[in-house]
């Protein structure tokens, strides 16, 4: 773990050339405590179009303020490393992991990678601004190289860290309570439906909402003054009746054969119907977006 997220832990060794780096990695698969000095670019006469590193682990290392170009990383792990102000161009990352890595002001272009490689790069919410910038650059890069099948993942991470950044700004008193509420309310609602991207989050939230409505409707059933032909007067309603009413209220304008007569019942039924339509709209939007991708 880095003692200072913007500095390497001491002591460390300076690696002065690409040849030195490659020679060190010939004798070990785990390189620790180093600062790489030059740009990481194939020199003239290198013999190969790209530099390749396979099955290597880099720990407490710095590639900060370097151009990293025409490099392929395969099954590599970057742990407690610095990429501050680095520019990554025309590279490839295959099955790599970034853990506790500072990517402040990083630039990424024309590079193959997957957003989930960076999901543990930033773990402390006080560095949420760095995470927002990172996933914004990943999102832009994926759009550039036409990796549309995974663009949704980058967008999800970007939006989620944007929400966390709003919370961080409020905690640090960078924004007031009112501005915080204005920012966090829509972001939280979007989070609860998976930002229109994650179906598993959407369905979990939808199920919890349905169960909550079901419990409410069952508890105050008598206050609804339900008029229905489904069962005769004198028959005590059951949880099945409440579930039936909840399902039809949230998926339509209301069950025609079961409708409330009290003012409270009408207000609650309309509210549940509106919320149900919002969920249906979000679901259709997600479905169309997925098909279009």
Beta-strand percent range: 15-25%
Instruction: Report mean pLDDT, rounded to a whole number.
Output: 88
Number of strand elements: 13
Helix vs. strand class: alpha/beta
Poorly predicted tracts of residues: none
Shape: elongated
User: Rg, please?
Assistant: 27 Å
Distance between the termini: 39 Å
How much helix is in the residues? Answer: 40-55%
Total domains = 2
Number of helices: 8
Strand count, sense and barrel status of the largest sheet are: 5 strands, parallel
Polypeptide structure, described:
The protein has 293 residues and is α/β, with parallel strands linked by helices. The strands form four sheets. Strands 1-2-4-7-10 form a five-stranded parallel beta sheet. A three-stranded parallel beta sheet has the order 3-6-9, with no helix packed on it. It has a three-stranded parallel beta sheet with strand order 5-8-11. Helix 1 links the parallel strand 1 and strand 2.
Give the topology, please.
Layout: E1 13-15, H1 18-27, E2 30-36, E3 51-54, E4 57-62, E5 67-69, E6 71-74, E7 77-79, E8 87-89, E9 92-94, E10 97-99, E11 107-109, H2 128-144, H3 151-171, H4 177-192, H5 199-219, H6 221-224, E12 227-228, H7 239-251, E13 258-259, H8 263-292
Parallel strand pairs: 1-2, 2-4, 3-6, 4-7, 5-8, 6-9, 7-10, 8-11
Antiparallel strand pairs: 12-13
Question: TL;DR?
Answer:
The protein has helices at 18-27, 128-144, 151-171, 177-192, 199-219, 221-224, 239-251, 263-292; strands at residues 13-15, 30-36, 51-54, 57-62, 67-69, 71-74, 77-79, 87-89, 92-94, 97-99, 107-109, 227-228, 258-259.
